[in-house]
Structures are given as structure tokens and as C-alpha cells.
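Continuing the batch. This is chain 6 of the set; chains 1 through 5 are on the previous pages. Same settings as before, nothing changed between runs. Recording input and output for traceability.
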Amino acid sequence: MAIQKKRGYRNKIYSNLKAYLDEKLVARGWFDNVASGETDWNSNNLSRLFPVQNDPNYPIDTGTSVHVFQGYRRNWVSESGITIIGSGVSSPTIPRAAIVGGVSSGSAPFSQGNNTSGVAIDFRNGRVIFEKPVLASTTIEVPHSYKEVWVDTIARDMITTQATTVDNTKHIIINNVPSGEVGQLPMILMEIGDNPAPRGRQLGGGLIFDPIVFCHVIAENRYDKDELIDFLQYLTHQSVRMVDFDLAPALFTYEGDFATTWETLSSLATNYQGPLMWFKGVSLVDNNDIAEDGYYTALVKMEVEIHTNEVF
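Output for chain 6:
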């Protein structure tokens, strides 16, 4: 019988902060919808995926048949039920099917065109993974929405000062991660600093944790950088009910597809309630208005307070 591994103090904070920031950003319109057949200024079909011929998970793939097809942008929206701020704004498109050679594969679990082999959608990496190899020349389309901001965790020494361009999109190179794992700009990279020991609550028992979370903002233009600084500072004095991810079911499979129906963070917190997290202070530590290697950076300090009745 498999035993579920409990998350540590830092990972509980990271998991909840990432989900919270992702949802808040989508709600404020930091996403783009890609309809079937939609093209860019250069007539590229943005909903069409291109074959990945060197995926390390499928070394047997040849140049003519592959398992993986990649989109132009990663970080596809997977959360449904988010209320979008503003009137006249379309909701995100959650991929439920792939269009294989002009034939819709229907709802999950997906089927590969006219045969029965499965295909999973990898939301984080913006791709589909077929159970059986598919001709690389096959037209694969997936209407979807992608998040414009990449939210992740990072250690300060993992950020390089080199930018690159992958798939017509500006990326930042991150050290010490598997080859090919890069995030799109703009980015918010979270890092928990050294934190004091938890304090005891005087009334009712329990503990209070006071973590400091540094958010590295990286963008390719000053406008996005300033917008994300403002977004983070607006969180001051807001609170969020955390999810106990030790109790919640796995949301995604190994391939990155839905394991269960994705819920919003607030609905998950209702069913798998964790402690309350309060943003007691958000301040700008460093703001670099001079582009270095093609991008702008800032450092935002978040003072967080977490109240819990048990060892967190």
C-alpha cells in the first residue's frame, strides 16, 4: 500500500502561493485565448502544435513518428470557474480535446482521432502526449488559453543573467533544472527566506508562522514589470484560506493532465481546509529600470502570517 508523503513547511507555502497567484493573475486578465485556426501576424496557426522529436522520455521516437506535440506557448490555463474581473472579457478556454487531422478527439479521456489510443494534455508544458506514436506530419490542434505570467519557485543562485528565445517566445534560462525546462517571460519566481521559529498564540493555543517570501519579477519590458509589482503590492492585508494538499487528491497525472476535475483554490479549501494565510506587508526591495540582457527585474518582499492549530 502506497503511503502519501506529507509536504513540508516550505512546500505547503509554495503550493498555495503558486495556486493563489495563478488564479489572481488569470482573474485580472493575464491570459490569452487561442481559438482553433487562430493565426498571428505572420500567418502561423497558433492552435497547431509542432512535433517534439528529441523528448528524453521517448528516445525511441523517430523523425517520422513522435509521442509529443508542443504548442507555441507553455503554461496553459487548467483552472475552471475563475471569475474574470471586468466586463466583456471572455473566460479562459480549458482544453478538453485535441483536433487530430481535423477530427475532434472528444472529451477526456481523449482518443487519438479515429482510433482508440489515448492522448493526455500536459497543461504546464503546453503540449499533448500520445500513448502511441503519431506521424510527425499529422496536423494537431488544441484550442486553449495560456497564462501570460509564469509563476514558480526558485533559489536565487538558480537565476542566470542570460535571456534566450525559444519557439518565438522570450524565455529566461534557469540553472540546475532538467534540460529544456525554461519559463516564459514575464515571471514571478518565489523564494522563502530564513524565517524565525513559530510563535505560540496566547488565546486558544496553536502556532503563528511568519515566513518571508521574496518574489523575483522578471520581464522583457518595463510595463509588465511595473504591472506585476503593483499586482503583488495590492495583496497587502488580504488573506486566503490555504488548501491542505496532504488531504486533497492529486490534481494532475504524471503526464500533466487532469487526475480529477480541477477546482478553484477557494473551493478546494472548503473541502480540504488548511490554515489562514495573511499578507501583512508587501514591499518593493529592488527595482531595476535598466534592461540587462534584454529584460527588467524587481524584487518584492512579502511578509506572510499563518495561523494554525497544529505543527504546520
